Structure formats: C-alpha cells, structure tokens
Automatic annotation (TrEMBL):
Residues 10-193 form the Ketoreductase domain. Keywords: Oxidoreductase. This is SDR family oxidoreductase. GO terms for molecular function: oxidoreductase activity. It comes from the Bacteria. InterPro entries: KR_dom, NAD(P)-bd_dom_sf, SDR_fam. Coiled coil: none annotated. It comes from Corynebacterium uropygiale. Pfam families: adh_short. One of its GO terms (cellular component) is membrane.
C-alpha cells in the first residue's frame, strides 16, 4: 500500500500550511513530487512558501488564503476544490485556548470549534465521494493526544480534538477496502528543531531535547503511516509516552493534574 502517486492533474490539499505540522507536511509532499493546494489565513506567507516549493521541486503550488473558522469561506474553498482532483487531504489547521471555559472569549471559542472540528468535518466530506469512486485517496486529520482524556482549562480544545480523533478512526474502519486511506495524527508536543533560549517555554526548558519531535520528523512519520493506512500515528517519544499514560492512568488522578498545568499556561 502507498500514497496516491504524484500526477500532473492531482493535488494534495493541506490546511494550516503556513506553519508547523501543516507546513512541514507540505514540504515533504512537494519533495515527493506532489502538486499542492496550500490553505491558511496569511496570503503573503502562503505565496512565499508556494514560490519556494515550486522553485525547489518543480511542482504546481496553488494558494487559497482562507479563514476556516468562517462558514462562507469554507463553502467557497469546497466549491474551488470541486475544480481539482484532490488525491490527498491533510486537515492540520487548529487553535487552542487555556483557562476556565467560562472565562474564555466566546467569539474565540466558537471560532476554535468551527476551525478545529466543523471545517475538518466539511472538508473530509467534500473529498470522500470522488476518492471512493476513484478507488484511491488519502486523508490525514490532525487530532491530538489531548483528545484522549478530560483536561480542565482546555475544555473547548479537548472537545474538538476528541471529536476529530474518534471521527477519523471511525472513518478508517469504514473505508477499509475502498482504496482510500484515513489516518489520525494524534501528536503531543511538537516543536522546531532549534528554539532560541529567550523564546523557550518552561516546558522547553524542563523536557530534554531528545524527547521532543520536530515538525519535520512528525511530517515524515505521518506520511509513512498514511501510506501504510495506519489508523493512528503518534510521533516522537514524548508524544508516545503521553499517549500511553493517558490510556492507563486513572482519569481522577491525571485530569486534575493536567488541568492545573493548563491553567498555568492560560
């Protein structure tokens, strides 16, 4: 089993492509010869990345500046997607908030839900019929290890990511035998390979470097898992440890501890 091969008529669409995991996956796919549709809010950043990837790898790179928290903009993107053959979809865009739910800005919380969950739901539905009809395609939705358990002071983010986790894994089983791969990426902490000391968080300073996974390593591991149609990929040693602990530790003990930490982040 493998990813759909690069073709001149086909595109991989990546949301959240202007930074982090989304950008790293876009770079890896371009290196493999795939044409790209890059989606994020920042038009200038997308344009610069598109030119870089086209010049380096000769692939066609389209940019679609879109605020995926806005229903009308998602609708416009889906209409545009209908004019292209989308062979790979990576839903990577997402935001988070920290602190008590009732203290959060309601507009930000509703946008977070729309971006993290509703956009993933709609874009996945938009590409699936054509993929199944062709008998070929690949979808990677970025959930989170945070979606494995209740986390006070991170309630909206956990709500969205728990949904993405179970939605994607459910589709993985539904799509068996169709030729369409569906993989959940459930990362814990991921970061740049090098972080200036003045920009390091308390977590960066406490956790040894060898436990982290970089965006680049995350992208490589994710695309390998997607090519094998694995149900879930958890990249990096720290993420794997967090994932394992969340599945065996008592919720009554672990959730308050996580909630205390996330309140500090808020």
């Amino acid at each position: 089993m493998a990813l759909p091969p690069p073709r001149s008529t086909d595109y991989a669409l990546i949301t959240g492509a202007s930074q982090g995991i989304g950008e790293a996956i876009a770079r890896e796919l371009a290196r493999g010869g795939h044409n790209l549709i890059l989606v994020a809010r920042r038009a200038e950043v997308l344009s610069a990345l598109a030119k870089e990837l086209h010049d380096a790898h000769g692939v066609d790179v389209l940019t679609r500046p879109t605020d995926l928290s806005e229903e009308e903009e998602v609708t416009a993107l889906i209409e545009d997607m209908g004019e292209h053959t989308i062979s790979i979809l990576v839903n990577s865009a997402g935001i988070a908030s920290f602190g008590p739910f009732l203290n959060q800005d309601w507009d930000y919380e509703t946008r977070q839900f729309a971006l993290n969950a509703t956009a993933v739901f709609r874009l996945t539905h938009a590409v699936l019929p054509a993929m199944v009809q062709r008998g070929e395609g690949a979808i990677c939705n970025v959930g989170s290890a945070a979606g494995n358990l209740p986390i006070p002071n991170n309630a909206t983010y956990v709500f969205t990511k728990a949904g993405v986790n179970t939605f994607t894994e459910s589709l993985h089983y539904e799509l068996k035998g169709t030729g369409v791969h569906c993989t959940l990426l459930a990362p814990g902490p991921v970061r740049e390979a090098q972080i200036p000391e003045e920009e390091q968080s308390i977590v960066d300073k406490v956790v040894p470097d060898f436990l982290w996974t970089t965006y680049e390593d995350c992208a490589t591991e994710t695309l390998e898992a997607l090519s094998r149609n694995r149900r879930r990929v958890v990249p990096g040693p720290l993420s794997k440890a967090m994932n394992a602990i969340s599945q065996v530790a008592p919720t009554a003990a672990l959730s308050p501890l996580m909630g205390w930490f996330y309140r500090k982040m808020g």
